[in-house]
Amino acid sequence: MEWIAVLAWCAAASVAAVVWSWRNGAMLNYGDAVAHLHIARRVFDSHQPRLSQLGSVWLPLPHLLLLPFVQVYGWWASGTAALVPSMLAYLAGCLGLYRLARRWLSPQAAALALTFFAINPNLLYLQTTAMTEPLFVCEMIWVAVWMVEWRSSLDNDPPKGRRLLGWIAAVLVAAIFTRYDGWIMALLAWSGIGLALLRRRRLN
User: Fold this and answer.
1) How confident is the model over 173-197, as pLDDT tens digits?
2) Which of 40, 57, 61, 197 is exposed most, by the fewest CB atoms within 10 A?
C-alpha cells in the first residue's frame, strides 16, 4: 500500500501538470522541445526516412523513445507525443527517490523528501514536454539507488550485487545516450565502483 500511495500521489501531480500545460498551450514553449520532436519525426517523415536522421547535436535515446508517438500527426504537432516518455521518466524518478530516502528515513520523512522533489514546478513542467531533463534526472536517481544497494550487497548478498552492477551499467549506457552530462556521470560512477572494490580488497 505504501508504494501504491506514492505512485498514485505522484501520478496525480503529473496529470495536474499536464492539464495545466495543455490548457495554457505550453508544451512547445521551448524551442529545444520542438526540435526534439522534429528530429524524431524525421526518422520516418522526410526525404530520406531512416535512423540516420537522428544525427544532431543531441544524443539519440530521447528521440528513439519518441518514435512510437510522433508518428501520430496530431500528437507531434501539438507536443503531446512527448507525454508518455516524459511522464514515465518523472514517475520512475519519484519512485527511485522515495526508495533511496526509505533506506535511511521513516515513511513520513521519506514522503516529505519526495514531496520537495515531486512538486518542483520546473520538473513538473518539463515532464509535459519533449525536453531531455526528466529522463536524465530519472537515470541519475536510479544510478544512485542501485549504487547504494550494490555497496550494501557486497558483503551480504554477492549474487544480488552482480545483478545490480548489470542494472547500473544499463542505466549508465542509457544516460550516455541521453545527455552529455551522462558521460561525466558514467566516469564518476565507474570510478566510485572501482574505488569501493579496491578498498574492500585492501581491507580483506
Assistant:
1) 999 999 999 999 999 999 999 999 8
2) 57
Distance CA 27, CA 11 (A): 18
Tell me the chain's radius of gyration from C-alpha atoms.
19
Q: Say if pTM beats, i.e. exceeds, 0.85.
A: yes
Q: Which helix (H) or strand (E) holds 188?
A: helix 181-203
Cell of 150: 550494490
Residue 38's alpha-carbon distances to 62, 65, 80, 87, 168, in angstroms, are 12, 13, 13, 19, 31
Q: Tell me the backbone φ, ψ of residue 130, rounded to 5 degrees.
A: -95, 15
Count of Cβ atoms closer than 10 Å to residue 118 Cβ = 22
Question: Are the C-beta atoms of 127 and 15 separated by less than 8 Å?
Answer: no
Residue 98 has φ and ψ, to the nearest 5°, of -65, -40
